[in-house]
Amino acid sequence: MITMQSIVKEYRTGEVVVQALRGVDLEVERGELLAIMGPSGSGKSTLMNVIGCLDRPTSGQYVLGGVDVSTLDDNELAAIRNRKIGFVFQTFNLLSRTDCFHNVELPLIYGGVARKVRQERAREMLDKVGLSHRMRHHPNELSGGERQRVAIARALVNEPQIILADEPTGNLDSKTGEEILRIFRALHAEGRTMILVTHERYVAEHAARIVHLLDGTIAEDERTSQR
Amino acid sequence: MITMQSIVKEYRTGEVVVQALRGVDLEVERGELLAIMGPSGSGKSTLMNVIGCLDRPTSGQYVLGGVDVSTLDDNELAAIRNRKIGFVFQTFNLLSRTDCFHNVELPLIYGGVARKVRQERAREMLDKVGLSHRMRHHPNELSGGERQRVAIARALVNEPQIILADEPTGNLDSKTGEEILRIFRALHAEGRTMILVTHERYVAEHAARIVHLLDGTIAEDERTSQR
Ligand SMILES: Nc1ncnc2c1ncn2[C@@H]1O[C@H](COP(=O)(O)OP(=O)(O)OP(=O)(O)O)[C@@H](O)[C@H]1O
Ligand SMILES: Nc1ncnc2c1ncn2[C@@H]1O[C@H](COP(=O)(O)OP(=O)(O)OP(=O)(O)O)[C@@H](O)[C@H]1O
Ligand SMILES: [Mg+2]
Ligand SMILES: [Mg+2]
To answer: Which terminal CB of chain A, N or C, has fewer other CB atoms within 10 Å?
Structure first.
């Protein structure tokens, strides 16, 4: 599903070049559930942004579902992102000017889903993450963990083939975090490919494989006992 | 130091009234280290905003350092916030238009500290949180956990009497999180009053007392063995 070879990502800040990824080789099978861990600043979000076709690598090969993404233009990458990939951002990235319901409905509008069906699915997804009582709130009228759950609902509402979640439980107490992980596991059990970035061990232990990133490269690729 | 009685905080969203705090009674001694835990949406950040004089309660009494804060006007509250309270926000609240160094220096500029001293202290604080190599980066050129550490550096640079930290390790791996907690503990050991909101048990266990919030009230006030 995902084949990456010698992926490098550099950022330029003024005169300084920061190498966030220094040659990453990663192979992820279709239907796999993978966790990525590593210290703050080690390159996890940068790697997720490249996997999710949100950012192009500076060099290296990335083949997604048999297609070499370097051959795709921006429109084609956007089409892949909208249809095949659900992305839960570390910074949520919700639209502040509209309410939760509309934020979750948005991917279905882009996907051209009929109004009645998409409203039903948005409502169901918000209910699943425990926020039906906050549907009409705007993001700035919510707690940190509630915003995070809206971002999760929005990423999953399209039932995408590939789910990329960057620190999805960072603002959640462990009970709410476990409820969210149950949703992820159910979606994974239906055959989806899932990659979770986390710094919390109880989250990573849901995965059969944990990739440890250190300073822009993979330091360890740990196979845990199958959960 | 902090005496709260029957604190209620209501938010109005359209027609709906949300009672984020439903009668909180809380007493915190000078020099105490307290953790606040509770489910997502239980009112932790709202309580911290009232304690930190960022938000006024809808009703109830709040006496801070012997002063009834309801008798203070906005300028007096701002003066208390700037001089006595260091606040680490759950959403960081950094200035995006300037670099890390200037973000950390800002409280010292408000405090009227001389240029040479404040630049020395800002540099030292950024070094303490492990970010001297990112001093000239703007917040959007940093990782999530790096932004969180800049927000921590900014809250502590004034060496305030009271430190309020809302989920300070939510985006940090446990090793970086422990490094941050060492900074908090050292500041606490010098006699500061400190309140940490967290959903991570390893953070709460640094405190001798854990207050459990549930649905806007205190469900439990747990004294743990002194660490
Ligand atoms: N500006 C607002 N307008 C309306 N409701 C609000 C507002 N801010 C917060 N709320 C509601 O008040 C309740 C408490 O919010 P608060 O941010 O204090 O929770 P929290 O315990 O910090 O949660 P988390 O752990 O998710 O950060 C939440 O249910 C939230 O929806
Ligand atoms: N736009 C940018 N410009 C310059 N440097 C950047 C930029 N974005 C990230 N970086 C740097 O690249 C490195 C990797 O960042 P990344 O966000 O991938 O880390 P991370 O592993 O997700 O960290 P965290 O756990 O703190 O979220 C960091 O040191 C960061 O400072
Ligand atoms: Mg990150
Ligand atoms: Mg909060």
So the answer is: C
How many percent of chain A have pLDDT more than 70? 99
* Helix, strand or coil, per DSSP, at residue A201: helix
Question: Does residue B15 have a pLDDT over 90?
Answer: no
Tokens of A187: 């979606």
Neighbouring C-beta atoms of residue A203, cutoff 10 Å: 25
For ligand 2, atom 3: residue with the closest CA: B141
The CB density around residue A191, as the number of other CB atoms within 10 Å, is 9
Percentage of residues in chain B having pLDDT higher than 70:
99
Number of Cβ atoms within 10 Å of the Cβ of A176: 22
Rounded Cα gap, residues B164 and B177, in angstroms? 16
Q: Residue type for A134, please? A: R
Question: Which pairing describes strands A193-197 and A33-37: parallel, antiparallel, or unpaired?
Answer: parallel
Cα angle value B167/B128/B78 (rounded, 5°)? 55
CA distance A216 to A42: 5
**Per-residue pLDDT tens over the stretch B29-61:** 999 999 999 999 999 999 999 999 999 999 999
**DSSP E strand boundaries for B49-190:** 59-64, 67-68, 85-88, 162-166
Residues in chain B closer than 8 A to A177 (CB atoms): 199
Distance separating the N- and C-terminal Cα atoms of chain A? 21
Q: Based on C-alpha coordinates, what's the Rg of chain B?
A: 17
For residue A184, the CA-to-ligand 3 centroid distance in Å is 19
